[in-house]
Structure formats: structure tokens, C-alpha cells
């Protein structure tokens, strides 16, 4: 099996590093914690209107 040149290893490392960073950023920004969802629902449920007539 032929050996890879050092520049080829380096470019392969850079490519996988960029793919890892992009994958992690996509997962981080697509995640919405449950606390924020529950807070939004609780603010909507707590709006009570008292009609005085």
C-alpha cells in the first residue's frame, strides 16, 4: 500500500476538522432547551382576563 505524503495527511486532517466543526455547530444551534419552551407555554397559560360586567 503506497504511503500518503504529509501534505495529503494535513489536508485530510483539515477536511475532517472542518466537517466536525460544522456538524457540531449545526447540532448546537438546532437544539432548543425544554426550559425555554416551558417558559413560553407558561406565560401564555397565565394570562387571565377578568371581565368586570
UniProtKB/TrEMBL annotation:
Bilayer topology: Single-pass membrane protein
Keyword Nucleus carried by entry: no
Subunit and partners: F-type ATPases have 2 components, CF(1) - the catalytic core - and CF(0) - the membrane proton channel.
Gene Ontology molecular function: proton transmembrane transporter activity
Keyword terms: CF(0), Hydrogen ion transport, Ion transport, Membrane, Mitochondrion, Transmembrane, Transmembrane helix, Transport
Organism: Traulia lofaoshana
Places the protein is found: Mitochondrion membrane
Assigned GO CC terms: mitochondrial membrane; proton-transporting ATP synthase complex
One GO BP: proton motive force-driven ATP synthesis
Pfam families attached to this UniProt entry: ATP-synt_8 (PF00895)
Name the record gives this protein: ATP synthase complex subunit 8
Transmembrane segments: 6-31
Amino acid at each position: 500500500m503506497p504511503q500518503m505524503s504529509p501534505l495529503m495527511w494535513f489536508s485530510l486532517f483539515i477536511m475532517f476538522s472542518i466537517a466536525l466543526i460544522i456538524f457540531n455547530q449545526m447540532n448546537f444551534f438546532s437544539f432548543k432547551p425544554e426550559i425555554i419552551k416551558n417558559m413560553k407555554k407558561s406565560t401564555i397559560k397565565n394570562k387571565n382576563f377578568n371581565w368586570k360586567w
